[in-house]
Every structure is written in structure tokens, then in C-alpha cells.
Design a protein that fits this description.
Helix content: 25-40%
Number of domains: 2
Mean pLDDT: 86
Largest sheet: 5 strands, parallel
Structural class: alpha/beta
Radius of gyration: 19 Å
Shape: elongated
Oligomer: single chain
Low-confidence stretches: none
Strand order of the largest sheet: 2-1-3-4-5
Distance between the termini: 41 Å
CATH class of the largest domain: Alpha Beta
Number of helices: 8
């Protein structure tokens, strides 16, 4: 089956990279578009779906969608926006969007919605990967287990969810606020130190207990990053 191509039109490089990472993990080819003019060019090419930020520079997302539909192009469109008013959702659908997602969002939810739209359009989608491997460490989403050398590290549910969120975004720095929203939920009333406490527990239960090289790196003043490849011990603390 040919690889499907998703255009991610988003001017925020961090969001663009995060979405691209998740989509590529699921077997999609990703083409980035940092502004409205690039979004139009790439959506007119051999693309299977367009993820379209409303607030693009040059030509905004609404005008991009309006132009594509005026040209009678049938590419599915998923609108991304920080606007939460009903009128904005209505406008997206009136312009021919297939879905409307408000920021902040879960990248995994975006992938699920993309697959659902492609299914409805009659196109098959790649199968999701459920097992992540990083050297001696395996993270099994289906079993809800983190294993080192095949042995279950016996993480608590929230610890596993945090590890999964970081590992699925390996190589990408995630803010403490982002992690709180993704792992604890939007209505969580605690503070960012909760993330620090759980990262320390993960390091103790996996990295220190099993004598693994550092894999959870602190991004000072921001958050944390899961390393794609674990450095040797000479790399020092992470």
C-alpha cells in the first residue's frame, strides 16, 4: 500500500514538528507548510489530507480552505485553531472542513481523527504501532507495561501514561504544562511540580533500578525530553 501524505500547515514550528512526529510514527509521509501560500501549493499537489491552522501568516487558514473548495479540490481538511467560539466551528464546516480541533490538543487524538476521516473517504490507513523499543527498554501500550530486559518495571498508571507521552514524542522537548494537560487532563488543579515528582519516580524505577543510561532529560526552565538513543554513561547526568 502506498504511503499516504499529510500536509501539516502550521506556523508554530514546535506544534508542526510534534504533529509530524506522531503522523510519521503511524506510517504517514508528512509535508510541512509554515504559511498559507505554502499550504495552498502543497495541498494542490499529491496530498491525501490537509491539517490546517487557522492563524497562518500570508493567507489565513479560512482563506486557504475557501480557495481549495472554490477550486473544487476534494482533499480532506482538518482545521486547527485556538478559537473556541461556536461561530468559528460553524465557519470551518461551512467552508468545507471535515473536522475542527481546538488548541491545546492531544496529538494522538489528531492522528485518530485523521485516520477516521481517511477511512470515511474510502482510503485505508496504516496500522498503529503499539510497542516502542529503546535499547533494553520496551514500552508496550497495549499491555500498559514498561519492561527492561523483558521484566515489568511495575509502573503506576500515571507513571506509565507520562512515560508513554514522552516516549511517543522521543527527541521532542515537551513543556511541563503540555505534560500536565496530556497526562493529568485539562481540569487538573495541581501545579507543575507534579510532573517533576513523577519524572523522578520514573528515573528511580527504570533508569536507576536497572542501571540504564539517562533517557529522561530535563530541559531547564521548560520541561522534559525523551532521548531517541540512550547515551553512554560518560555522557553524564541528563
Amino acid at each position: 500500500m502506498a504511503m499516504q501524505t499529510i500536509v501539516v500547515a502550521e506556523d508554530d514550528a514546535a506544534i508542526r514538528d510534534l504533529l509530524g512526529h506522531h503522523l510519521q510514527r503511524e506510517g504517514f509521509a508528512v509535508v510541512a507548510a509554515p504559511d498559507g501560500h505554502a499550504a495552498l501549493r502543497r495541498a494542490r499537489g499529491a496530498a491525501d489530507l490537509l491539517i490546517l491552522d487557522v492563524g497562518l501568516p500570508g493567507v489565513d487558514g479560512y482563506d486557504v480552505a475557501r480557495t481549495l473548495r472554490r477550486e473544487q479540490r476534494s482533499i480532506p481538511i482538518v482545521m486547527l485553531t485556538a478559537r473556541t467560539e461556536e461561530i468559528d466551528r460553524v465557519l470551518s464546516f461551512e467552508l468545507g472542513a471535515d473536522d475542527h480541533i481546538c488548541k491545546p490538543f492531544s496529538p494522538r487524538e489528531v492522528v485518530v481523527r485523521v485516520k477516521a476521516i481517511l477511512r470515511r473517504s474510502g482510503k485505508q490507513t496504516p496500522q498503529a504501532a503499539t510497542l516502542l523499543r529503546f535499547g533494553r527498554l520496551e514500552i508496550d501500550e497495549a499491555a500498559r507495561e514498561a519492561r527492561v530486559d523483558g521484566a515489568d518495571a511495575k509502573l503506576k498508571p500515571r507513571e506509565f501514561a507520562l512515560l508513554m507521552e514522552l516516549a511517543e514524542n522521543a527527541g521532542v522537548a515537551l513543556s511541563r504544562d503540555w505534560l500536565l494537560q496530556r497526562v493529568w487532563g485539562f481540569d487538573f488543579s495541581g501545579d507543575e511540580r507534579t510532573v517533576d515528582v513523577h519524572v523522578r519516580r520514573l528515573r528511580a524505577k527504570i533508569q536507576e533500578r536497572w542501571h540504564l543510561p539517562p533517557f529522561l532529560c530535563t530541559v531547564h526552565g521548560f520541561g522534559y525530553k525523551f532521548l531517541r538513543s540512550q547515551p553512554g554513561r560518560s555522557a553524564g547526568p541528563c
